[in-house]
Task: structure prediction
Amino acid sequence: MSDNEKKYDMLVDYVTGKTVPNVGVEEIRQRLELYFVETKGYPKKDIRVDADIEIDIGGSHYSSQLDLVVSVENRSFMVIKCAAGSLESREREVISASRIFESKPIPYAVVSDSHTAVIYETISGKKIGEGLSRIPSRLQAAEILSGFHPLEFSDKKLEKEKIIFRSYDSMNINVSRKINE
Result:
């Protein structure tokens, strides 16, 4: 191993069973995955880890990954940003991700350090709760989704959201996808 290579501790991802490097907020993600399955009742199959996001901004391609995307009955329900430190400093990043991840906005955006959480309603961008206990359970999420009919944002608004997401996301340097860059 050269002096420039860094050896990482590895761990087994709770949801996927894959071995992953323990960098950045990986331990936070593992605690959240366990919490969503064991406490909130989401099956592992409904939790996407490192969900790919591909966006086009004015003819320029940008690809990244979202920490977690939780679904109910094959409908995305919330994007979760795992973060250490100030959770509310990640508000715009996670709300933008929830607005652009699919063709229509998904209901909730959450930022968590696995000890607490801030929950946002995606369409309005308003904070609607704080604390892990305020994150909807799978049963609550199914009920919310049954009445959720998202409005589509204008193309101009979506372009702004893509720029916001890219700006914040490109500052995420301590993530596993950037280890080999």
The chain has one domain: 10-173. The longest strand covers residues 60-72. The chain has four helices and eight strands. The mean pLDDT is 91.
